[in-house]
């Protein structure tokens, strides 16, 4: 058939359906590179002048809901600074009442919403990364994280196009089009546990990981698939994040019950916003086949419980472009995952290809009969980015290790060197992890080396056809312009500059020496 014979008014989703297979194949290649080479990296921002950037420019925001001082907050800030992330904003800093995160988890939703509302329309396409302030540390640089974000979301959106077919979403346009732009961290159980909640039972069945991959399919937490939403790590465009946070606040207003055990759980409300989205998506998909009333108990057979069905009104917005980072390419949530995390050294090669580096895994996580050891390859962009960062401190520390000598914590099931670690549950793991992170021996010199870039707002990545620069830079009014004490964070949208000395001067032993108090507070 000639292209001229195609209908003149193909919908966006018809074109998407035609292109999806090609897109998925392409994205798969860039999302999961098979090998790494030891080629010299090209710095995105070294010696770059932000005033001379050509082409589209977008900005990257880093938000940390935090109400007060703590050594783990300082470790989060330190890992972000050492790896070249934007200067952070502390949402809810020293706030009171409903904005005090030490009193209610809902403060996170309210203070982040205030920040998103403060952004101009020109920031709608900016990327916003929000992490919990007291139990998260970074492992990979921002250029790799942003690359992975776009690879995952574009692949997911292409699959959604195939799922709905050519004609099923003709009535949906613009922001109502099913797509994925917001990534949440994964969770191995629906928390708070209430299987009647829509955020528990309406979740996608196919997450791209087979049952049993984490161990026998026996219902134990550590063997479960990471199918659910965790609200401690979120990344997406400013506009979509604003809409999603607004929907969460609306759900809080409608469903808040002060006597409910988990009434202040931000995760409960956010997961239900996602659950309603998935419910509406599934019902829309089924209408392609049944063309009439659909029994939700048939449509969602996953759990043998009485489901509380969402009351979705005609014309109600349910699509918020929410998705889950099931493979932990960006976000590694701890709960139930200790047994699949391992510090690997990617120093193995083959005689046929000595530039390809990998690690051999001998741990039989799925408990498979006749288990065969397998290889995990280090992505080339990650190897290059880490090497670039290490070279920044070479003048100060002398010889630096090759990337193949470093130990990188890896998810043995998804085969990803994760972007950041979120220590849900107990904090002993993250305290021990801190001194094992590859950059820990160079935290102080990396601080000093990153200061000029953070002051100038130099580019941190090139991805999605755009150059990415930090939205927030170091304070231009600070009397300190060099060294660790030139760094810091911004307090909300109105709280001003918080210097490193003020925030973390009392915790420098915990940050730079790795000391952890004997009693966990």
Automatic annotation (TrEMBL):
It comes from the Eukaryota. Keywords: Membrane, Transmembrane, Transmembrane helix. The keyword Membrane applies. The chain crosses the membrane at residues 12-34. This is Uncharacterized protein. It comes from Penicillium daleae.
